[in-house]
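Collaboration report, partner site 2.

Our partner group contributed sequences for two proteins of shared interest, and the home lab folded both. The records are reproduced in the order in which they were received, starting with the first partner submission.
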Amino acid sequence: MVQPRYKRILLKVSGEALMGDRPFGIDAVVAKDIAEQLKEVMKTGVEVAIVVGGGNIWRGAVAAAEGMERTAADYAGMLATIINGLALQNALEQEGVVTRTQSAINVHAVAEPYIRRRAIRHLEKGRVVIFAAGTGNPYMTTDTAAALRAIEIGAEVLLMGKNKIDGVYDCDPSTNREAKKFERLSYVDALTKRLEVMDTTAFSLCLENRLPIIVFDLRAPRSIERAISGEAIGTLVSG
């Protein structure tokens, strides 16, 4: 069992990571792997919150570019994150992990409303809390939601779980074999080099609140456990 470096974490699970190798939707094998890892993480006493993306089901920005009104497109994206949140909750509960899903928009039949103090209480009681529907506002990404919720609940690190992307590079590694991966970055370096760690609003929140970010491949073996132990995995962005 790993020795955790952090007491409370927030894990951002991208929709693409949940998609796995499928062209769209949710790969049950990937969801089960995440749940199994988090079950082991919980045994160490780490408090775990999760923000889920929705890109495996819907992308508001893409729909807006194709002519759909942007606000409506973004709300549709929030609903996609709720679907992902419920799927991940089910995978965790099948592993015996007590889980609560909180939504930034009202869907009382399937999720609690987001209430910061209630979320923190769930964490203190050893429950995983899944935050769905982003921030509840259009034009705001789930990266921004992850940074915001991490700061609100007092998480010590933001884990950015990607799909087959094992860190931050100086250019796109899928198109340039000479792309250089960074093991560690300061906030200033990430800004000056214009590296796409996350969207600008989310990054600004992390910078202003000195919240460390670890960008890593969620599909790598035992990736979450290794990240919370302090092992050099992915790219660490910090002060």
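Second partner submission, folded after the first:
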Amino acid sequence: MIERRRALLIAAGAAWLAPWQAAQAGAQIEEPLADAVRGALAAAVADNAPPKPSFERMDDRLAYLRWLGTMSDRLKKRKSEALTRIEFLEALWYESKRAGLEPALVLGLVQVESAFRKYAISKAGARGYMQVMPFWTRLIGDGDVSRLFHMQTNLRFGCMILRHYLDVEKGDLFLALGRYNGSRGRPEYPNGVLGARQAWLLPAGLPA
């Protein structure tokens, strides 16, 4: 019964979210961070190295290349320039995996938050692909808000913030997504992201 209800909610989210609808950005709420948490998050976002995935097994590399090609085809409507599209997907995959997140989930979140617009700004002031609130640059960054329009920086902040919220909510994705959007406890946003996620899953049998 619970699984059926969850499936219906996800389906409702998919119906609510048109394939490329305008951004539905919210706003993370500034909360006190323990020193250890602040330090860990600051260290996680400080490394500016470009995303260069390495693979010990050829099968893993081939799976990654299949993912890259499939997602690039699906993203053409929103990013027509091939190099820009590939660079975005490379960075998103890298930052998702680095934060222990599923790339399809992060793609769904970006779709809902910014509709894949690099320079999107919400009414609350959240910025970039993952609609990161400026206060995060003060809490765990160097204070330069303009850097949230840098592709990899924005994706890194967004992924680490979602990872932080998942840890806070003890792995409850529904509540973590609500916290990310500043709408914790309400179903519209989590269901929208989960619905959007479906479009970014690989065909059955191909690893994410």
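Feedback sent to the partner group on the second submission included the following. Residues 104 and 198 are 8 Å apart (CA to CA). The chain has one domain: 2-200.
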